[in-house]
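User: Quick sanity check before I run a bigger batch. Here is a single chain. Can you write out its predicted 3D structure?
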Amino acid sequence: MNADRIARLYRWIEYATFGPALQRRRVAFLLEVADARRVLVLGDGDGRFLERLVKQNPRARFDYVDLSGRMLELARERAGTDLVAYHQADALKIALPERCFDLIVTHFFLDCFDEAGAARLVERAARAACPNARWLISEFRESSRWGALWLWVIYAFFGIATGLETRRLIDHHPLLLRHGFRVMHSESAWRGLLASELWARAAPARRLPAR
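Assistant: Done. Predicted structure follows.
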């Protein structure tokens, strides 16, 4: 999907439908990652979360990936360029350094992929994550018939506005578990439709030399 057509309006579209609820999900566990030093942010759009993260972590370095050039422009205006390297690229194709990032961020991004695409994305990001990395996730969840109706409307709108092809949610939990991540904190809102999660991957135990 490419959000160029709606980039300047996206913030107001979000507020008109959910008020501040999506941004609250993005920042729910922000304080828990105040010690992050190398951060990969994938598909986060107009940079409102990035701005908060950069202000909180002024000693960190950030790589910010989004397919939309206009979203990247908005992110640059908000978060600046001193600490952030911006990449207009497909998250499934961009070359990423291995075992480099101690924090991965995907807010309302995994739900843009089908099962195969999400598996590829998680595998690539996990390979780029260092052994003790953490992962911040916000997402939609189909928690009820009411939630299913909301999701139908959301997917229909983004299908028209951005070319999004996905029409249903996938479960990212087994994908992250496969790569050694575990849920540390989780919250939900809007009757379960919105969720925030903080995952962590424990560094492997050091093997002592044989005596």
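The domain at 4-98+108-133+140-201 is CATH 3.40.50.150 (Rossmann fold).

User: Great, the batch can go ahead then.
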